[in-house]
Amino acid sequence: MGKYYGKGTINFDNAPSILSYGSAVGPKEGEGPLADYFDYIGEKSEFGEENSWEKAEVALQKNALRAALKKGGLAQSDISFIFAGDLLNQCVCSAYGIRDFDMPFIGLFGACSTMAESLALASVFVESGVAQMTAAMTSSHFCTAERQFRLPVNYGGQRTPTSQWTATAAGCAIVAPRKAPPYIKAVTFGKVIDMGVKDVNNMGGAMAGAAYETINNHLANTKQSVNDFDMILTGDLGSVGSGLLIDMFLRDNIEIAATHADCGMMLYKTKKQDVHAGASGCGCSASVLCGLILKRITEGKLKNVLFVATGALMSPTMIQQGESIPSVAHAVHISKE
Amino acid sequence: MKITNNEYNKMLTASSPKTKLYKTLPKAFLFGGIICVIGEAFLGLYMRYGAEKETAAALTSITLIGLAALLTGFKVYDRFAKHAGAGSIIPITGFANAVVSPALEFKSEGFVLGVGAKMFVIAGPVIVYGVAASVLYGVVYYIFNAAVA
């Protein structure tokens, strides 16, 4: 049974396994450096849904879930609970995606932190014995995010150098009682942190403070140090947020540059694909985790990864009312042993 | 170590790259200039075919708006605007793009609540404050004229 360490951290005595995982991405992501690791790459970002970007994202999520079930040789009925969320109002892409599947659905909103949030909850449900098998899933789509949070896709505006590109991607991981690696050893749920940043075109900058807080909390609560991990993987801080995170740890005389990696800087050829400060969106960390990282852990090339997905929790309404951007980060310790 | 919002924002400003004005300004000037040259060419063409200057100017605006709308539909205008910046926003073509892009985008929500309602999300404020400013200008102009007379 898991032990609550306080301050958001739960340690698992009987670390559950990630049994299977699947990822699905769009054409731009399919041209990126991680193309070989994704289970499904769409030829067009419509994914067969010509009239609606939202339906395209729904299709994307279904593909990730199907890939995860298929790779694990699982049936829909094997899943006791599915934890899922996305960026859109009312988390519609998750609800409409799961409507065709026969599994109890727990909808989540954690913005771009949803992959870590869902994975952490899925692990708690399995480890506590209430569920035999759970799924954690999330997605984002460049066009649905643009039309909800920003401007129409064909509007001729310029993006600022600190802006990030919302990934058209989805990822799904299936958690089951301890069997084979990768194992989930501990999780930390983050607090809502607001550093007073108001620039919605600098999300990485707004979220770095939350990542710093959660990483510090996780290390202190589990009595570990940065050196206990071979990778500290943040979700989508991009180049600006990553630099800031490294600088914040340097103030404490802790060097994390060598162990730190960021999904937002791995998904695209940042310069060539013109994504400015990197990738963002729930699907960014979900697809990088469920594409590349879990595979690397299974193969033994990575041993201990602290996966810290960060989310900016604002809405256009709150920003227009002059509010700053609150953010949250959740951490999941994924291990080979 | 605890960090205050003030310190954080200083660190953030230092680590955020700035817009490279030495690159964006000349580009905006060049591309905006090209749009104006195209406009001048149409103006000349219409006058050569016998249109009065005022009619030719209206025809030129209509032509530029039509072309920008078409290029927005073909997903070309935003790619051009990525480089042109203010050079493609300020001319009348930018206004056309600002109306056509949401109209196309929200087609999926139907012709009334989608296209009709969302067409002016970007251009609406420009029209509102444009009209308000012109009324104010008219009043000032009227008073000024009366005072001079």
Walk me through the structure:
The complex is a heterodimer of chains A (337) and B (149). Helices cover 32% and strands 24% of the residues of chain A. Chain A has 337 residues and is α/β, with parallel strands linked by helices. Chain A has two domains: 2-176, Peroxisomal Thiolase, Chain A, domain 1 (3-Layer(aba) Sandwich); 183-335, Peroxisomal Thiolase, Chain A, domain 1, CATH 3.40.47. In chain A, β1 and β2 form a beta hairpin. The radius of gyration of chain A is 18 Å and the shape is globular. In chain A, 58% of the residues are buried. The mean pLDDT of chain A is 96. Chain B is mostly helical. Chain B has a domain at 21-122. Chain B is built from eight helices and no strands. Chain B is extended and about 75 Å long. The model of chain B has no long low-confidence stretch (mean pLDDT 95).
Describe this structure in a few short sentences.
Chain A has 337 residues and is α/β, with parallel strands linked by helices.
Keywords summarizing the entry:
heterodimer; A: 337 residues; alpha/beta; Peroxisomal Thiolase, Chain A, domain 1; 2 domains; eight-stranded mixed beta sheet; six-stranded mixed beta sheet; globular; B: 149 residues; mainly alpha; 8 helices; 81% helix
